[in-house]
């Protein structure tokens, strides 16, 4: 029995756990010696541990002996483990936690780039902003024109960025170039973009210094990324003052497959009957078209996407001929057919590699009838692209790839001219010309984003381009560096060279065409938190080899110019309750020797000062979303042949106030939006330039076809809530 | 003599196992009582840590991880913006751990749905549809796994209550979900003293609010 007693004591001791108790205490701090409250300090596989107090200190009793692992963790920090030998003596341990990798804390390359995305948490815009910005009338470019860097060129739908022409901005969908992103129009009346903002999940608007992935754009790249699989099956119906449209998107969630499409018809005749237009229309604008898309998830990380678009449109009008004294009217009739298709595939290859491939075919045919001439202009583009990227370490990435484009441009002109013969009789001379231009363009690029730390990233890249038409190989280096100077602030610098083929119309008569070239230098400082954005960007852009209208083709590439300026952007979603507003200011100083210019001057598409105020307010109780956009731009230059100083004259300043409101309502499974919008509410006079008669005696202002544009529309969306069905299928 | 040793050895393991289980249940009961009555972020953080520690020792139990996730999802209501996502990420890690220990558990699905709903508040305009749909689907799964669980219905009510009528929510819709939840709370008996039992008081509170004009 004697022997049992010590055993029994031992048993009591062990079960009560009082063999050896060790006090472990200390303080949890981070690398900057800041204390961390609320951290969890525990001994692996045991109950023992504690949370750190507000001053970071902790203390607990450990019941284990021998070697134990102490784990310290806190949200936003990397968990650390430490092995300690407990021998019954008190232990002091001060864990130092390292901030965990966090997307928000990592610097992003921001020079020249404005992004709208839901996926990235901190972006200047959200995709919904594009639709809800007043004055934009639901047009992507209309919304982007409220951002700094963009000019207000009211006679065109194109984006004129930082002293560049509209053609210097390229639109890209899922990596594939879009040759004709706008509806065809006559040169003096703005049309709008072809693509609905609702089909894109991400928009990157680059106003300079962009990645080596993009070429053939001297000023700007608008990169759009289409939606992946939709969240649900849904149907839409749109009824508006200008047309009707229906669409359907069907989702087979369990198969990872969706197919969708829409058809729409727009006819402006009823609207033009109500709101008087300046031109005398011989055919009111009509548009009919549609789109088709499918998406297939090929694996958890792979997706195959197709998007196809087609549209037919026509319109015609007469305007008083400025050269005629007897009221003769010039005719302009345009019929357009357009197709754009895009097939892309994205897949992750192993841990580190990502593959992106794509192919696209597009074709655009414009048939134009003028009073005496008719022109058929066709442009086709076939393209293929491959991009491979590989992650290096946690953050760095290297990207490389290539693209190939086969372009066909055809111009067919038929005309009549009346000329006096030797006996002073008029004779009608018929002429015909047919020009076809083919180009094989290939490019390859490589680019690396090298993170020297979480705060400092260096992007080095280059792009080689060859066009059979130019018969020349060029190399464009690109580089940028971004440094995070605070929790929310980033400082960036960018440099790059950008080549672009001359516009297709200039290619017609050039025997030795050459690339136009721009060189960008950009400095940017940006502060973005959840509710505010402040951006300041200064830049200098050098233009070389611009196209000149020189009869001597060897001199036709000797144009030049520069652009420099300041872009400022401020957005605030917090200060005023329920209000989201932003202010953009653009200062632009640019001159160029270009086309038939007599000397280096500020071109007609550049205003020195541009400012925009966008204001949005949501009235929750009324289910009403409202907003306005006010835009000011100083007068733009125009050519007055009577002024001995070339391009000296300026138009009046441009002012416009756009309003919109939308009433939203859910009726059972139907989500309805009733939208109303009007441009130029106040009715400010807008003049985009002047045209002069051949004898310079008469001039005509280029103005919008109507002072205001009114829009009213009802959009219905029927989302079938298929959640129950999905669950049933899964079980 | 041998007998005594054997008995002693047997009782020792038995007592030890019982003590261990008793310690688990008592510790859980103590900490669940704390989170039943508070939404204070500091307290919740400490409780989340405690549940994490219990889960660290009791590897076969799903409840410690479940309650750790519960603490983190409730902490999202005291922060704004991106911090919500950070807490949701943490909650999701714990609930997935619970899910791997106890698969097809209605309570775990209910909490998963609550995490998805919490993510909406980062930006309701842009996230409403995606996470709203997701949360709704997970709640349906929770109902299917246990039709007597009142919590998915309570969460249905919360989703409707905080969704404007124009987006398919509203108090009327919320009310019918809360009524269903109340009816189930009346007959619902938690499997144990530490099994999930939260939500009844909130349901009663919000049901009253639905009738306020």
Question: Could you please describe the fold and organization of this structure?
Answer:
- The complex is a heterodimer of chains A (731) and B (213).
- In chain A, 6% of the residues lie in helices and 55% in strands.
- Chain A is mainly beta and 731 residues long.
- Chain A has a 22-stranded antiparallel β-barrel. In chain A, strands 10-13-14-11-12 form a 5-stranded mixed β-sheet, with no helix packed on it. Chain A has a 4-stranded antiparallel β-sheet with strand order 4-3-6-7, with no helix packed on it.
- Chain A is elongated.
- The C terminus of chain A is likely disordered.
- Chain B is mainly α and 213 residues long.
- Chain B has a domain of 104 residues.
- Chain B has 9 helices and no strands.
- In chain B, helix 3 runs parallel beside helix 5, helix 6 runs antiparallel to helix 7 and helix 8 packs antiparallel against helix 9.
- The radius of gyration of chain B is 20 Å and the shape is globular.
- The termini of chain B are far apart.
- The model of chain B has no long low-confidence stretch (mean pLDDT 88).
- Chains A and B meet through helix 1, strand 4, strand 36 and helix 6 of A and helix 1, helix 2, helix 4 and helix 6 of B.
Features of the shown structure:
heterodimer, A: 731 residues, mainly beta, Immunoglobulin-like, Maltoporin, Chain A, 2 domains, 5-stranded mixed sheet, 6 helices, 40 strands, elongated, B: 213 residues, mainly alpha, 77% helix
